Amino acid sequence: MNAAIEAGALLITAVGVLSFLVAYAATRTIRVALPLLLDFLMAAGLIRLAGDLSWSSILLTVAIIAVRKVAAFGIAEKST
Prior knowledge:
91% helix, DUF1622 domain-containing protein, flat, mainly alpha, single chain, membrane, 3 helices
């Protein structure tokens, strides 16, 4: 079960990186591509938590969410 969860998280991470590259290539703006990547990374982190509920996994997921929020705030400030 744990191997399946890790494989799923890795797959979501790979899809996130691919989506980031496609979105950036299509729009040439980081404002669209970066939040997309960070959402996929957050989803992968949450899936990893299902398999390994440890403090290091929790802290990694919290760090990804914090980066996502700061990046979204910075992008919103820059666009207005």
